[in-house]
């Protein structure tokens, strides 16, 4: 394995020096190993103890785990009752009302504001009382389509306070994508803002919501937070201003105590087929996963200032901007801008200004900033940092080394954290004070997560080291998704029926001679562009919505900056005349969102298909990546003569 050639970096000695850093929770690999083995030997004991230690229960649970992966009936802490917002806010507000919960770093530098736990409790309560007055009840779904403002966190927590299910839609999605998510979840309310700001640009959130709601009957009200104050369309009585409504309501709202297994939220994510899945997370298990991983993976300590640069519209934002940090009573930075606005020094200015101790970002941002050069990093005081994290896709060793040396000055642990929307919280990761790091490897499983490598064909477990296969998890863990909203079949078929008795991640993996895990990427038709998860089938469906497109085949192509980029092959209906590819790009922007737009579209006469009509994307991938001499067996193609024609059109474009 070529990976063996890569360097091993020991835990930086500074982290273990009590005169320089707080003592890490887990401060040696032996401690990690011992705790890990205990957690796997008796998971019920481990999770039961941690659930009592890390969460506040209004009614204690009796059964730690019920059900299993075989039948897809997993339930954790069954009889227990609790409230997520009480756990994130109230219990800290009582002890420490003046501690800062959220620091908002606004798009324009110099405009940051802080919210204490005491203030957060008031805001969350006022909004919860508002939602109650609008007639929303436990079990109802609320869509949140918000820019990166603290009020987005308030919206999450107010829903949780009443047992409402939040369904956050990333504010980069188009109105059509928003509409289909609102309809699928039968959301009754949309919480949004007049506009958003990002990188100096305006995002017209309210206008997008208005278009999404045309012909959408489930939504009764739209609650609009005023972010920019610009004039936006407003139609009473459907639309309500956040500031006007909240003022009418009391700053305390008793939490609705819910069952452990009541849903906390839905989050749509892309899979192998066209329609996005509403992944369902339940309350207690999800909260426990968020709380425990935040504590150990980022080695969270009492006075830390933690900053995750993701968007609240993705699972990373849910678990590691909001729930994880707040469950631990921490201070979390909510960053509205981009890594390069107004200059590629922005992250480092923010770290220095707020004295951030843990920074969590994505490989695509790291690669981008590395490309701008070290000068943008130098001159900023980054000495507050102890842990720097990466998430979303495999990080290439060059980018890892840059992050470690230039940003971390070899004095920080790099945590390459592997997980998914469906896992709820981190499953493979180094621990800052314990794990020797290998650049590009997410290293070892987190406590209580029993991973295995299966041979993809036979489904047999590959024991020992130096193996390659697909990554599965062998036992239920608390923060695993319980179902796909209104489609348990799809849940079973995607995750639990592929290899019976295992949770299937969809990722290829290697376990090297030292037992380190190396994620190789998806083995299904899911691709990753700048950390955004896209489905080739979903983009294909968008393309064929265009009146002149007959067929479309989408592939992910390696990209030095964004990980992968979207390339699309389209055939046109007969007698279309001239078709502008820009129109096709626009079609994808309109149907899904700009972030899914193809980088390249090839108009071709035919697509490579098997005799049964299945498109062979493998052939297209090879042609685009310049490996047309390694196409493999193309004799199964219905018409092998199209291959040279395709090669020609790719080379010409
Ligand atoms: C997919 C999940 C939950 C984090 C944000 C993405 C890929 C995620 C890593 C990593 C290699 C990674 C996998 C996974 N992925 N983290 N550290 N190393 N690959 O969540 O949108 O649900 O995507 O992202 O392919 O299956 P997501």
TrEMBL record:
**Which residue intervals define the domain Acetyl-coenzyme A synthetase N-terminal in the entry?**
32-88
Keywords assigned by UniProt, alphabetized: ATP-binding, Ligase, Nucleotide-binding
Q: Enumerate the Gene Ontology biological process terms.
A: acetyl-CoA biosynthetic process from acetate
Q: Name one GO molecular function term.
A: acetate-CoA ligase activity
- Is Ligase set as a keyword in this record? yes
| Cross-referenced NCBIfam families | Ac_CoA_lig_AcsA (TIGR02188), PRK00174.1 (NF001208)
Which reaction(s) does the protein catalyse, per the Swiss-Prot or TrEMBL entry? acetate + ATP + CoA = acetyl-CoA + AMP + diphosphate
Residues in AMP-dependent synthetase/ligase domain copies? 90-477
Q: What is this protein called?
A: Acetyl-coenzyme A synthetase
What Enzyme Commission number(s) appear in the record? 6.2.1.1
Organism (species) = Rhizophagus clarus
Can you tell me which family this protein belongs to?
Belongs to the ATP-dependent AMP-binding enzyme family.
Quote the cellular component terms of the Gene Ontology held in the record: cytosol
Pfam families in alphabetical order: ACAS_N (PF16177), AMP-binding (PF00501), AMP-binding_C (PF13193)
């Amino acid at each position: 394995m070529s990976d063996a050639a890569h360097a091993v970096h020991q835990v930086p000695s500074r982290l273990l020096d009590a005169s320089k850093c707080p003592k890490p929770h887990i401060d040696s690999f032996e401690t990690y190993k011992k705790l890990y083995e205990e957690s796997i030997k008796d998971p019920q004991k481990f999770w039961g103890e941690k659930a009592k230690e890390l969460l506040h229960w209004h009614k204690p649970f009796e059964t730690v785990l019920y059900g299993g992966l075989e039948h897809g009936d997993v339930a954790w802490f069954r009889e227990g009752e609790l409230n997520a917002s009480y756990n994130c806010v109230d219990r800290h507000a009582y002890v420490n009302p003046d501690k800062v919960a959220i620091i908002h770093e606004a798009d324009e530098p110099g405009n940051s504001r802080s919210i204490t736990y005491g203030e957060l409790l008031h805001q969350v309560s006022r909004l919860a009382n508002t939602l109650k007055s609008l007639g929303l009840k436990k079990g109802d779904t609320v869509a949140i389509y918000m820019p990166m403002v603290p009020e987005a966190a308030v919206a999450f927590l107010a829903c949780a306070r009443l047992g409402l299910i939040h369904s956050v839609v990333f504010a980069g999605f188009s109105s059509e994508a928003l509409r289909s998510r609102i309809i699928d979840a039968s959301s009754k309310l949309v919480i949004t803002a007049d506009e958003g700001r990002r990188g100096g640009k305006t995002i017209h959130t309210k206008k997008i919501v208005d278009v999404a709601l045309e012909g959408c009957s489930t939504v009764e009200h739209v609650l609009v937070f005023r972010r920019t104050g610009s004039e936006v369309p407003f139609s009473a009585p459907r639309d309500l201003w956040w500031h006007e409504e909240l003022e009418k309501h009391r700053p305390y709202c008793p939490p609705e105590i819910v069952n452990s297994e009541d849903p906390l939220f839905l989050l749509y994510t892309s899979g192998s087929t066209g329609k996005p899945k509403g992944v369902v997370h339940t309350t207690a298990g999800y909260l426990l996963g968020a709380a425990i991983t935040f504590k150990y993976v980022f080695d969270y300590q009492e006075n830390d200032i933690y900053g995750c640069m993701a968007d609240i519209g993705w699972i990373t934002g849910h678990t590691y901007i909001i729930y994880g940090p707040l469950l631990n009573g921490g201070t979390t930075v909510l960053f509205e801008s981009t890594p390069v606005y107004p200059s590629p020094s922005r992250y480092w200015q923010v770290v220095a200004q707020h004295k951030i101790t843990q920074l969590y970002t994505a490989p695509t941002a790291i690669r981008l900033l590395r490309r701008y050069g070290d000068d943008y990093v130098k001159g900023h005081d980054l000495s507050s940092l102890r842990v720097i994290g990466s998430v979303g896709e495999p990080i290439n060793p060059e980018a890892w080394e840059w992050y470690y040396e230039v940003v971390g000055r070899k004095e920080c642990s790099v945590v390459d954290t592997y997980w998914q929307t469906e896992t709820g919280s981190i499953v493979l990761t180094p621990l800052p004070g314990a794990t020797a790091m290998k650049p590009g490897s997410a290293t070892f499983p987190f406590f209580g997560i029993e991973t295995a490598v299966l041979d993809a064909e036979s489904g047999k477990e590959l024991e020992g080291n130096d193996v390659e296969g697909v990554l599965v998890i062998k036992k239920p863990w608390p923060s695993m998704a319980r179902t796909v909203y209104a489609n348990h079949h799809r849940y079973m078929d995607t995750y639990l029926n592929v290899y019976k008795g295992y949770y299937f991640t969809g990722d290829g993996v290697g376990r090297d001679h030292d037992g380190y895990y190396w994620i190789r990427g998806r083995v299904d038709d899911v691709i990753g562009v700048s950390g955004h998860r896209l489905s080739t089938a979903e983009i294909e469906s968008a393309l064929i919505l265009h009146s002149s497109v007959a067929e479309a085949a989408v592939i992910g192509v390696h990209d030095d900056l964004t990980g992968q980029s979207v390339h699309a092959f389209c055939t046109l209906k007969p007698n279309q005349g001239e078709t502008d590819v820009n129109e096709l790009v626009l079609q994808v922007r309109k149907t899904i969102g700009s972030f899914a737009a193809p980088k390249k579209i090839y108009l071709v006469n035919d697509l490579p298909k098997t005799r049964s009509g299945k498109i062979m994307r493998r052939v297209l991938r090879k042609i685009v990546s310049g490996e047309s001499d390694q196409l493999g067996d193309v004799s199964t193609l219905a018409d092998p003569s199209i291959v040279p024609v395709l090669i020609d059109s790719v080379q010409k474009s």
